[in-house]
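I have a small job for you when you get a moment. Can you supply me with one protein entry, sequence and fold together? It will help me judge whether the discrete encoding reads sensibly. Write everything out right here, beneath this request:
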Amino acid sequence: MKEYLQISDHNVIKALAHPLRVQILGILETRAASPNELSQELGAPLGNVSYHTRELLRFGLVKLVKKTPRRGAIEHYYKATKQPQITQAGWAATPRVVKDAMVRSALDQISDFVNAAAIEGGFTGDEAHLNRVRLTLDERGWQDLSRKLTELLGALAKIQEASQKRLDRANHSGERDVTVVTMGFETAEPMLARRRSRQSTSTRSTTKSGKQ
């Protein structure tokens, strides 16, 4: 796991909302690659991939790691610098349309990771986890949950750091590439019920107002 890059700038947050940038960043978090390689892997036009890679570079989310001469040109290779983490304040100030785009992009990427791992047996180990817990919380409980999930991210970084030291001593024997996904969100059914209730109340109020 890379060091987290705390993001509060709404311009950077909007830049991360583009699905192709999310895909590019996901690949570059695991290895260095050139726009040409990314284009072939993602099945996207080279011009588009090059542009979005430059934008990620401009925002400091990727860095140029090497240049390789190839067929009379120079191929540039990039790698992610830090794993972006949007601050609570930054997320609160982000427009709904941007949030929706970011969530869709993130869920698409998570789905790809999870499905590929399931096919290859990534969940068969005794220590693997696949849990879904449904809770009923008040506002304070919701805030406590959010804080605990944030603390977990910090704990993961410490586990990674300790593992890296042991792996270095063992010449990386027993190394595992592990993905952890954390989510905390309001369940859809109660949200829809509240929305229908508000709409019904609004309709009744309008009807009464019209009869007066």
Summary: Residues 1-126 form a domain with the Arc Repressor Mutant, subunit A fold (CATH 1.10.10.10).
